[in-house]
From TrEMBL, chains A, B:
Peptidase M20 dimerisation domain ranges (all copies): 194-352
Full protein name: Acetylornithine deacetylase/succinyl-diaminopimelate desuccinylase-like protein
Matching NCBIfam families: PRK07907.1 (NF005914), PRK08201.1 (NF006053), PRK09104.1 (NF006579)
Keyword Signal: no
Coiled-coil region list: none
SUPFAM superfamilies from the UniProt entry: Zn-dependent exopeptidases (SSF53187)
Amino acid sequence: MQKQVIQFLKDNRERHLEELQDFLKIPSISSLSEHKEDTLRGAQWVEQELHNIGFQEAKIMETDGHPVVYGEYIADGNAPTVLVYGHYDVQPVDPVHLWDSEPFEPTIRDEKIYARGATDDKGQVFMHLKVMEAVINQDDTPPVNFKVLIEGEEEIGSPNLPKFADEHANQLNADLVIVSDSALVEKGKPTITYGLRGLAGIQIDVEGANSDLHSGEYGGGVVNPIHALVKIVDSFRDDNNFIQVEDFYRDIPELSQDERDALARVSVNEDQLKDDLGVPALDGEAGYSYVERTSVRPTLEVNGIYGGFQGEGIKTVLPNQATAKITCRLVPDQDPEHIVQQLTKHVHSKAPVGVNVSVTPFDKGKPYVTPFDHPVIQKAAQAYETVYQNDTAYVRGGGSIPIVAELDRILNVPVVLMGFGLPDENLHAPNEHFHLENFDQGMETLVHYMYLLGEQ
Amino acid sequence: MQKQVIQFLKDNRERHLEELQDFLKIPSISSLSEHKEDTLRGAQWVEQELHNIGFQEAKIMETDGHPVVYGEYIADGNAPTVLVYGHYDVQPVDPVHLWDSEPFEPTIRDEKIYARGATDDKGQVFMHLKVMEAVINQDDTPPVNFKVLIEGEEEIGSPNLPKFADEHANQLNADLVIVSDSALVEKGKPTITYGLRGLAGIQIDVEGANSDLHSGEYGGGVVNPIHALVKIVDSFRDDNNFIQVEDFYRDIPELSQDERDALARVSVNEDQLKDDLGVPALDGEAGYSYVERTSVRPTLEVNGIYGGFQGEGIKTVLPNQATAKITCRLVPDQDPEHIVQQLTKHVHSKAPVGVNVSVTPFDKGKPYVTPFDHPVIQKAAQAYETVYQNDTAYVRGGGSIPIVAELDRILNVPVVLMGFGLPDENLHAPNEHFHLENFDQGMETLVHYMYLLGEQ
């Protein structure tokens, strides 16, 4: 039956790519209020699609923010139930001038589809929908029951989903959760992510005088908010790139030699990576490898900084405000609440006189790790290997999907993170894209996985 | 005759204010290339005005940048010749939303005229033009000959004027230069500026990867250009706000006790100033007073900083570039060339691995001081005191008019800096304005000055 289902996918590939482009055209940027309606259109597209592929139930469900789309197709009360989690919202697109094609006009070049959301996460959500469609269409006795939960706030930290999942825990109940919102470690290498970093962040606003001042009249006499901000931000790390926020590392267990050995086997060609990124060197926290720094170590990154004159040439102004946006990637057992408290305390302790400094926390997510010897994870690896003909890598992801730790806690079933992106697909950056090779092979993998799960 | 000339000014006040508004309507922002044509219109307005007021010669003269307007009215070969220097270009207007009225739609409220350029420097240039018009119109034997040199690049550091003045030194030859591009120390207090700070600056560009990166995938592994920039910028000063650039203070003579005493007599109500500016404290270089820090001490100010995400909310990006714009106010005998070299050296010495850092110098200006016991300066004080009925303050200005030191060098005659603005008129900031009280009293002062200069 797998063959027949896979053939259906092949036969319908052209239609699928057109539908995917329709989905990618919707600028469902959850972080920007001017895209509120567009974000809703993203939800409506998913709801309609669930009806189209034959789901018995599909609905948009309100939250305090952007809505959730829920759907289910129950074929057989005795079959295992799979809950697919994903998100229909996307990141902002600036700087737009660095895109080679419009971010919301999907374009296929060299067997890659370019658009905001292509790999993160609309493209991968879409693959699941098409696999479900194929199974429902071709198989009178599908091997599993399907539930889907597609949210619209992943890119802003899923502020409303934990409450939603708590309130609808019975409805969401399943035997496992599948999340495809991550990447293969490299082209052709099946990858299961058994851990994710958490997220915590703050915005720092420094206010000086009630308007910009002339740097000749007032320069030297009044504290410059940019200087104050720079002093605060630079105090976050020492020369070894160790984070100087009190108790930042307190709750992180020492990395075991076994885990360090396992991570050392993850092959990253650092010279190649340097060339690909165009940077003169890779650097970070002293004493840890690149792989460790980007997966099992916490980070503190300034995502944006701004204040004063940004135009061409000179403007000899002493600006009246400056802002920095900072997020930390967290690892077990760092607690996001605690980290935000410590960040806030740190900022205030470093704030110089002469300016007013305020701190606004962003939404938070807990870090997550799970044992990877669970049968449903092993079956995922088997499905991958059938298609990719290559061993599975088990990694801890550097990114954050805050809701994963929450779903783990609320539903108390294994969460299988099997992604089909690639690490250089520019997610969150200009020219985001998705390789169609993994679009095809990924769907085949998912078909095999569904039938492996159905074998009781 | 002074009375008759002053009466003419009074009789024509309404027409004058209308003409001034026409001048202020021209968005002659020299630093922005999209305003190149507007800047030229500023020059054309001055040229036409010189013809209108009866100058024998008035012309626009090309430079490698925005043009210069030159004009002359020679009444009597034996009378002293006054060269008035000023500028028709203005600062940018951002942030525009903080203006209460449009920056290029001049508005009179509470006997103040609001517009970009109202006080810096179109308003003050205009006063000279109207005084010349009144003298030429009313007096068959004017007491002095007039030359004017009005440039269009003061706000970008007068990059082309030194060469122009060098090449036209004979044409510009005069007995003194008058510059009205500064302020009274306080309302009702005649003020002669006998020194000015110089200017030097650089732009620092930090480049990381060839595009923005996902902070989850790459965070911790790759150097964040914002971190690198913040590290560099924070290294410029220590906790006492002493500039840490090597040899920065090397050429500054120790301030004499006499000069410190004189500066201590300049009254600044720091509590009032704090309230007016809305800052919790005034602070700067340790061991120096507010007045010292803003006039006789050099500064290093970040005028603008930017990199990464600036929108609403979070974008968990590791940005690929960050920029800071920095200018220093210099005091005698700091050399701008030397300071730019030292700044550049400092930046490169502090640049961390993993990023490419480049430095672009801005245009420079030398600091300036002159003895204030020269007769033409004493006559200026006498003219001021006749109208304002108050003693003259002699101060060193915190701002920079780089061309002053150049005119001093090239023409080798006294440069009299007598301004009519006020310190809180928001020059270089939103809601720039000019008090009409000083517009009227300033023109009267200038009339008296011309006749005092004519007494041989």
